[in-house]
Write a structure and sequence with these properties.
alpha/beta, FAD/NAD(P)-binding domain, 2 domains, 5-stranded parallel sheet
Length: 226
């Protein structure tokens, strides 16, 4: 590789969204399998049945959002209790939304379609019952892996390996300045992070673009001190 010397560094390497370990999943990406619930997807699902996989807050928020347009949202979770992995407020809102059906202890085992997804096969791991759900849209919200394995230990990360930023890092053993870190600054002065790679980020394109713009402003502020 090549060594590059710089006064500042902006980490914006993003995250790789985990894919369902189901045959043909990659084939339907963009033609039935999606990793975000934006207004475009919501409009596309108007009046249709959709499948959403995931039990975290991001999955719950997407389910509520899609339910405003979809005829029905099937929410598949691996466990038997939605409240174990999701905030209680959001879980109860989902349970009180008439067109969201929670399928507990359930996973996707197959996908079907000719060029575009038209159905998914599911398995209830408790009863061993298999079903086929007709749908043209499956949303996967099973987490993401940040691209941070190349970073040194001086750049602190959270328990899921996303880059930590902000004033709480002022007490870090790696922070060497008297001032507090900027909002998007890491535990190493002059090193910033923005977008999906950052701990606590919203994991949306619009948010990542906004954070990138903010980070550049902080870079200019940092360079003024040099």
């Amino acid at each position: 590789g090549e060594n590059v010397v710089a006064k500042c560094l902006l980490i914006a390497t993003g995250a790789e969204y985990r894919r369902l370990e189901v045959e043909h999943c990659n084939r339907f990406e963009g033609t039935g399998v999606y990793y975000a619930a934006t207004p475009n997807e919501a409009q596309m699902c108007r009046g249709s049945d959709v499948v959403l996989v995931g039990g975290g807050n991001s999955a719950g928020q997407a389910a509520v959002y899609l339910s405003q347009n979809a005829r029905k949202v099937f929410l598949l979770i691996r466990g038997d209790d939605l409240c174990k992995s999701m905030s209680s407020y959001l879980a109860h809102r989902i349970m009180n939304t008439p067109n969201i059906e929670i399928l507990r202890c359930t996973e996707v085992i197959g996908m079907n379609g000719d060029g575009h997804l038209n159905s998914v096969e599911i398995l209830n791991k408790t009863t061993a019952e298999k079903k086929t759900l007709p749908t043209t849209a499956l949303f996967s919200f099973i987490g993401a892996t940040p691209r941070t394995d190349w970073l040194p230990s001086e750049i602190e990360k959270d328990e899921k390996h996303f880059v930590r930023t902000g004033i709480e890092l002022g007490d870090s053993q790696h922070w060497t300045l008297k001032r507090q870190p900027f909002l998007l600054e890491t535990s190493r002065p002059g090193v910033f992070a923005a977008g999906d790679v950052r701990s606590g980020s919203v994991k949306r394109v619009a948010s990542a673009v906004g954070e990138g713009s903010m980070a550049i402003q902080f870079v200019h502020e940092y360079l003024k001190t040099m």
